[in-house]
Structure formats: structure tokens, C-alpha cells
């Protein structure tokens, strides 16, 4: 899978999950997610997006807030913070909020 920008090739991204993030190639600065056939699964609306991690969640930033979404695009955690990682959200001073939680633990 390849992500393009206005100038051409931006980066190549290997598939590691059913869907992957992609910068909208029509000049937008928003990220969305596509499937292996190149169809939008989650339309571009995020300022920042990560791949989906083994816990089934992706980190996104929308309107200045970070959170975790599932593969349907639903937020399972939306927390105001300045940092967000693959397996944890942290407060602005670096204290973990959700260290290494699974989807089931996070969605209780």
C-alpha cells in the first residue's frame, strides 16, 4: 500500500492488519483508513492516525484531542492529552492513563 501527497509518493506502508491508514490524496491533510482493496473503511477526518495495533485499536488525533478508535471508527477512549502511544495514553506530565490495556479492559 502506498500513501501519496501532492508531490507524489509519500511513503510505502506494509499491511499488518485488515485496514491501514492513508492520507487523503486529494490535497486534504486528514487521515482515514482503507482496506486491502483500497476502499475507504473510515473516511478521512483525523489530523493524525496510527496503524491498528494488536489490541485492535489505533491512535488518532481529532480537533486537538487524542484517543483510541476501533476498526469501525468508533472511539473507545477519548482523552485530552498531549501524547498518545501504541499501548498507552499519558497525561501532559507523562503519567500513564491506560498502560497496556486490551480492548476488553479499555471498554469495560
Automatic annotation (TrEMBL):
Name the UniProt record assigns to this protein: WG repeat-containing protein
Organism: Phocoenobacter skyensis
